[in-house]
Amino acid sequence: MEAVPAAEALDGHKDRFDLGVFVGDLSLDEEVTSDDESLEGLQKELDDCKNDQEVANILANGIKLREYTKGVENNIRQIELDSIQDYIKESENIVSLHDQIRDCDNILSQMETVLTGFQTEIGSISSEIKVLQEKSMDMGLKLKNRKAAESKLSKFVEDIIVPPRMIDIIVDGEVNDEYMKTLETLSKKIKFIDADPMVKSSKALKDVQPEVERLRQKAVSKIFEFVIQKFYALRKPKTNIQILQQSVLLKYKYTIIFLKEHAKEIYAEVRAAYIDTMNKVLSAHFRAYIQALEKLQMDIATSTDLLGVETRSTGFLFSIGKESLKTRSSVFALGERINILKEIDQPALIPHIAEAKSQKYPYEVLFRSLQKLLIDTATSEYLFTDDFFGEESIFHDIFAGPIQVVDEYFNAVLLNCYDAIGIMLMIRIIHQHQLIMFRRRIPCLDSYLDKVNISLWPRFKMVFDLHLNSLRNANIKTLWEDDVHPHYVTRRYAEFTASLVHLNVEHGDGQLDLNLERLRMAIEELLVKLSKMFSKPKLQTIFLINNYDLTISILKEAGTEGGKAQLHFEEVLKSNIAIYVEEMLQEHFSDLIRFVKTRPADETATSSERVSIAEVEPLVKDFASRYKAAIEQMHKDVITSFSNFLCGMEILRAALAQLLLYYTRLTECVKRINGGSALNKDLVSISSILFEIKKYSRTF
Description:
Layout: H1 3-12, H2 42-50, H3 53-61, H4 65-89, H5 91-160, H6 164-172, H7 177-195, H8 197-200, H9 203-233, H10 241-249, H11 253-262, H12 264-294, H13 322-329, H14 351-356, H15 363-388, H16 393-415, H17 420-440, H18 446-472, H19 476-479, H20 488-504, H21 510-531, H22 537-557, H23 563-598, H24 613-641, H25 645-672, H26 686-699
């Protein structure tokens, strides 16, 4: 189809072109001679045909352009004629197609009309939907507001309305679990009326408020009578107060809360009634318990039971019965009384059971029992009042009476108490009770326990000073007995000191240690004075050794806590044993000892100091003749002089060892004398002396 214009162009200008235009350099054969026709665009078409393959083939075969053009034109005409025939054959179909297109056009026109109308209707519906949407939003907001109003209104109606059932329960119902729940509901209504300012301005309040007030008054009246009745039940004899509190009163705890919130004056009356009731009940219980304990008390010490007071002046020799002897032995010795500190957590004594068994106890046992009952009762009451009333201060009002009862009894007993060990035990008991209350985290008795502790220490100091002064001011003549064995005052002191040291081990009270040091100095001074009552120095030394040894033994029996006192007495015992050994040897071998001590122990003696046979011969012969008898006599003296056999054996061994040392120095002196070998037959061998020492050591 594109070759047609080109052919027509070539046909129109066939006289003016040569075939050389399309080959090689494509030069023109003929020049344009006519100026009538325009050749504008021809060059462009020629350039386009230059690269055309078909044109190139025609030119290459030498075909004339005009002929080829004519052939092309003929072909085109034939094709055109054929096309016309085809159209003529299909004319009916074309007409039918035309009719169909026209019908479709009509249908589409109708559809356009319908769609245009539908579009208009849709626009109208969209406007209506917007209106409906606005109405829906408005209705939703109104519904939300109405629901909020309904909620508040229903809450208001529910809070302010007084149901008939509530009236029936408050007015005619019994105080039980249902009554408690109804009381809580009434309390909420009262709070609602009082708290919300909008309620006070409502008309409904004018109708409801009088009824609510009458219900409040009726509820207050009923629960007042109910609670007071329960309080009075506490006053009945043999009532278990703690069970009644836990199982009954705490069950109706809300009645107190209601009174505290809505009837403060009535609550004050109820509070005062409970305080008065429990004050009297507990005071009576403790008073009765104290009276029962008094029948169980064992008197341990009186004002005359002191360390430095002679036995005869206390009437001890005239006391009869094993119980009295046992009691007297507890004045200065701790003994089994220490067990009370191991029974701190045990329940309080039941007096009528102990009385039925005819049992008696030192006061510290009764003291522990009374204080144990007090702290347990106080703990229970403190926890109950805090839970039931919600006040800790009410406890102190309740326990003012019971504590006063206990205080009066305690002060009366303490005023006449001269049992220093018992007082120290009570101090330790109070300390343990303070720890118990601390572990329980109950602070209600802190001030009371501190006060008791403060009362005990001055009394202990006063009684201790009585013992101390009894030693310092002791009558030596009345205390002295012509007996070298341990004095009873020494045993008292040792037992007394060991007891206090034992009780002070875990506490380390420095003031008590100072007082014990003062007591040690006093007893030591007294023993020295008593020893001087003996005429012989040997007897004085024996007396001191026996007393020091007894003191050390008793302190050791109390444990390893003898402390400074034990160490001191061990030192003075050691020094007195050395003195006694010298005195005993002087009694039997004075010449031998004097000779040995006046002669040097080495060979540095001058000629004037040298010993002759005449000087030593009597000593050697005298020793050989008497040493066995002297050793036997020393053995007898030790046996009769010292109460402690072990101590006596140690003293005898020390004496014999010292004797052996003296005799050894004598034999060495003999060996250095010219001609001293002549005395060898009279010298006693060392082995013989050792044999005698072992012999008496075995029999001791």
